[in-house]
């Protein structure tokens, strides 16, 4: 009799986590940290619910908030990390940012790789298709040389822009910015990305001074379009702007190819509101909301244990 060997080891890489989640129709929640004190309650919530999750920072969180930068997040993570349940991810590093400024994206991503981040994202979604492919391929070559996966984005997941968005229903009905099926198939084939962030009705939470405190738009998802993307791309897909989408819609997305979901506004706003009381109250609010997202919205408590089970073991 052959021994049963888990597909994912106890020291599994981020790549293994996300692929196994995709194969088993689970999801890896990924939590943005715009303020360093938020990290500890998020890590604690993942550990207490035995959930496999990513701790992450996007460039805009050290430019427009108080994350400090690639190294500051890395240092704080090292102080509180629980490797049974967490990995460190570099979220959006755009080639062209939300203010239409050119970014030295390769330098930022290179810094993160050298600092020990375990996966990275390059966002060329504001570029023409050929340019997006070329920039993503450049980062894929850089990251794959050190054995870490690359996330990319195709389509327009709106919300980070400085100006007001058109009415949401107008956006959804027009399919403005939705990831194109033919382009997605070509993008995955030519760019070398490992995971793809797609636009299927999801939007980011606003980050402007006026919009960031407002309730997020209640977005919905085109599940049929997602299912087609899943078939055409053949790699794990990522849902950005995960806050504010109806629970059943999110769960249906997980069943149709979403293997990583980004959570930012849901935990940032409680932190900011409760900081007026005290930092302890703010961190308690982050912990409570992280647990709620994991257990209620995603139903993923215990996923770290599930990711270690054998997949179709031979006997």
Share in β-strands: 5-15%
Spatial extent as radius of gyration: 18 Å
Give the total of beta strands.
8
Uncertain parts = 1-9, 207-211, 311-315
CATH class: Alpha Beta
Can you give a write-up of this model?
It contains 13 helices and eight strands. The chain has 315 residues and is an alpha/beta fold. The protein has one domain: Aldolase class I (TIM Barrel, Alpha-Beta Barrel), CATH 3.20.20.70. Helix 2 links the parallel strand 1 and strand 2. The longest helix is centred in the last third of the chain and has 19 residues. The termini are close together.
List the defining traits of the structure above.
8 strands; alpha/beta; disordered N terminus; 315 residues; TIM Barrel
Topology:
Layout: H1 14-23, E1 28-32, H2 39-48, E2 53-57, H3 59-63, H4 70-80, E3 86-94, H5 105-115, E4 119-123, H6 129-144, E5 150-154, H7 168-174, H8 181-191, E6 195-198, H9 223-233, E7 237-239, H10 247-255, E8 258-263, H11 265-274, H12 279-297, H13 303-306
Helix pairs in contact: 2-12, 5-6, 6-8, 8-9, 11-12
In short:
With 315 residues, the protein is an alpha/beta fold.
């Amino acid at each position: 009799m052959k021994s049963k060997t888990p597909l994912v080891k106890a020291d599994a890489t981020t790549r293994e986590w996300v692929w196994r989640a995709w194969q088993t129709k689970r999801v890896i929640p990924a939590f943005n940290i715009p303020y360093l004190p938020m990290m500890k309650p998020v890590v604690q919530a993942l550990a207490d619910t035995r959930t496999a999750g990513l701790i992450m920072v996007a460039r805009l969180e050290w430019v427009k908030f108080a994350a400090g930068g690639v190294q500051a997040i890395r240092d704080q993570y090292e102080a509180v990390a629980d490797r049974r349940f967490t990995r460190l991810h570099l979220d959006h590093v755009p080639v062209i940012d939300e203010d239409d400024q050119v970014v030295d994206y390769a330098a930022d991503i290179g810094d993160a790789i050298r600092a020990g981040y375990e996966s990275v994202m390059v966002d060329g979604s504001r570029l023409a298709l050929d340019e997006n492919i070329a920039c993503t391929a450049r980062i894929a070559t850089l990251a794959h040389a050190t054995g870490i996966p690359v996330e990319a984005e195709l389509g327009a997941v709106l919300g980070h822009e400085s100006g007001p968005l058109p009415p949401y229903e107008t956006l959804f009905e027009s399919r403005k910015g939705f990831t194109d099926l033919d382009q997605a198939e070509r993008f995955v084939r030519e760019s070398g990305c490992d995971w793809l962030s797609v636009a299927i009705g999801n939007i980011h939470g606003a980050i402007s001074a006026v919009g960031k405190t407002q309730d997020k738009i209640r977005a919905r998802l085109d599940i049929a379009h997602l299912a087609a993307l899943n078939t055409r791309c053949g790699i794990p897909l990522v849902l950005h702007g995960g806050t504010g989408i109806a629970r059943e819609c999110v769960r249906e997305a997980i069943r149709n190819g979403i293997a990583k979901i980004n959570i930012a506004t849901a935990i940032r706003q409680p932190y900011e509101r409760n900081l007026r009381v005290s930092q302890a109250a703010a961190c308690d609010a982050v912990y409570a909301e992280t647990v709620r997202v994991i257990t209620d919205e995603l139903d993923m408590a215990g996923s770290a244990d599930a990711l270690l089970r054998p997949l179709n073991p031979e006997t």
